[in-house]
Write a structure and sequence with these properties.
Layout (H helix, E strand, L loop, with lengths): L2 H11 L3 H12 L8 H26 L22 H8 L2 H4 L3 E5 L6 H14 L4 E5 H14 L2 H9 L3 E5 L8 H14 L4 E6 L13 H12 L2 E5 L5 H11 L2
Parallel strand pairs: 1-4, 1-5, 2-3, 3-4
Length: 250
């Protein structure tokens, strides 16, 4: 085996695939021989770091459970949606997550709340922040099942661990007193070290009535609503608009 092949094989055995690919590229482009050793080594290191960043982001995205792929670059910011562009630009920096603040995205059905939440979650993953998505009805169902089979401690750990927990469509799903108390414990533990992103078609003024007990509602909402940013979306259903555009061939 030649020295080149040994080097390539060694790099791959060391799981330095990015460096191996960059080294192969240098071999295939003789003009790079004019570069200094330090310059060529820097290219190898840059490629390896880039590959690792890409794999890390892919792992984070795979673990989110997002129902759809969304990135802020594809945001439809047409007039009439009520998008606060200045706030969106701030949220895209993800400092609110690092500061353990929350975000509520509100608006009627179909205006793009889930899409925007997933896009902001993707933005967080790009910055190395762990995210977990849960539809509210599924969250309540999983809590009920965990209470029944004794695995509630494991579920709580899973829900507390990510830096950002995204609860979609809050207000849908059956919440009884037992589920509500588990939710309170999760929210309480998260508020000390992480963030919540909640979407809902219900205005925040109506959230209190979504709980089975007013005292429980006060306790949970005091932790959710305070230190929260809010995006209020409006306008026609984006699904309806896009369907019309497809029909028109736009």
């Amino acid at each position: 085996m030649s020295t080149v092949q040994q080097t390539l094989s060694g790099l791959r055995e060391l799981k330095l695939g990015g460096m191996a690919d960059a080294y192969q590229l240098q071999l295939d482009q003789p003009k790079l021989n004019a570069s200094s050793f330090d310059e060529r080594l820097a290219m190898l290191v840059d490629r390896e770091m880039s590959n690792r960043d890409t794999r890390r982001i892919q792992r984070l995205l795979k673990g989110t459970g997002f129902p759809e792929s969304a990135v802020l670059e594809d945001l439809d910011d047409r007039a009439g949606r009520g998008l606060d562009k200045a706030l969106l630009a701030t949220l895209a920096g993800c400092q609110w997550i690092l500061r353990h603040q929350n975000l509520n995205i509100l608006g009627p059905t179909g205006v793009g709340k889930t899409w925007l939440a997933c896009a902001l979650g993707t933005q967080a993953c790009r910055q190395g922040i762990s995210v977990l998505y849960y539809r509210c009805s599924q969250l309540f169902s999983d809590i009920a099942m965990a209470l029944a089979d004794g695995s509630v401690s494991t579920l709580k750990s899973r829900l507390v661990k990510p830096a950002l927990l995204l609860v979609d469509d809050f207000g849908n799903g059956e919440m009884n007193l037992a589920i509500g108390h588990v939710l309170l414990d999760i929210v309480d533990r998260r508020m000390r070290c992480s963030s919540l992103l909640i979407t809902s078609q219900y205005p925040r003024a109506q959230w209190h009535g979504l709980f089975p007990d007013p005292t429980l509602a006060d306790a949970v909402l005091d932790r959710i609503v305070h230190q929260s940013h809010q995006l209020q979306l409006k306008g026609e259903s984006m699904r309806k608009i896009r369907a019309q555009e497809r029909m028109a061939g736009v």
